[in-house]
Amino acid sequence: MHITVIGAGAWGSTLAALAAENDHQITLWSRRLGTPLLEAVSQADVILCAISMQGVREISAQLAGLASDVIILSATKGLDLATATVDTLPLLPSQLWQAAFPDNPIVVLSGPNLATEIQQGLPAATVAASDNLAAAKTMQSIFSSHRFRVYANPDRIGVELCGALKNVIAIAVGTCDGLNLGTNAKSALITRGLAEMTKLGSLWQIEFSTFYGLAGLGDLMATCSSAFSRNYQVGYALGQGQTIEQILHNLQGTAEGINTTAVLLQLANQQQIELPIAQQVGQLLNHTTTPQLAMQTLMERQVGIEHSPD
Ligand SMILES: NC(=O)C1=CN([C@@H]2O[C@H](COP(=O)(O)OP(=O)(O)OC[C@H]3O[C@@H](n4cnc5c(N)ncnc54)[C@H](OP(=O)(O)O)[C@@H]3O)[C@@H](O)[C@H]2O)C=CC1
Ligand SMILES: O=C(CO)COP(=O)(O)O
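== Glycerol-3-phosphate dehydrogenase [NAD(P)+] ==
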């Protein structure tokens, strides 16, 4: 098949290499390369978008006239700030694609997939999620190999939401590690982070099982435990006392959790819900707390019942 990969960053290049290993034809497009976007997609059977969240709306609007059988595969992990209004939930990247191309099959690729490890040839598994199961299975066959195992899943929105939310928790966990607070604290934060993710998921009416799958718990574990994760790196450096400006100056690549935190704070405000971890991460990023105080605030919240919805 002919696959046009939009975005030649860490993830786009890695996915392009996986498909090329399976003998698919690849066109890699990046805004830096100068090829017109419409020319790059003219032969595509599949358009794989692996750019940062901030570019998805603009790029999807630039594409036009796609045949309705072209499969759009979204690999971005984020939420759209512009669409978080009082009455609507923020849109996910695949929903921006669906709005631009209502007749095309849309698939989301998400899972514990640190690009650096996959580039090193290490094994990984992921999820191709779509309400169009045939399209998800096509993605399975394009990307699966002895070192990359792709599961199909019908819960596109749930899988995609997990990928966006875990980045915020990874910033918090990185901060905890940067402060050297130990394994017990880290485990508690990951577990309560998963609870916060599922609480948010109820707004989208996401099945619990998705949160305990590869795109949920799996990706949360990967992102919260690897120094390759940019979101973890941001948190770790905050915990070590750096400012967000210093961190972003040195960071290689995109840490989507920063933007996603801003979306979640807006959502918490609109929906009048408490998101203890995201709110502390937001304050850290906005310079209104310190790492030590953020962790202390989480520890000193009123004690409650473990599986209560609050
Ligand atoms: N790296 C990883 O391990 C994984 C990343 N992801 C997700 O994939 C997405 C991309 O991440 P990653 O590749 O690592 O990030 P990088 O920072 O390495 O690359 C980002 C890419 O997005 C492009 N881009 C950013 N803004 C725009 C825009 N407005 N218009 C067009 N292109 C734009 C960049 O283009 P340019 O180079 O011109 O700036 C670049 O190609 C993120 O949502 C991330 O969460 C998902 C799974 C794994
Ligand atoms: O999504 C990822 C791993 O699955 C990559 O995480 P980072 O964006 O934090 O590097």
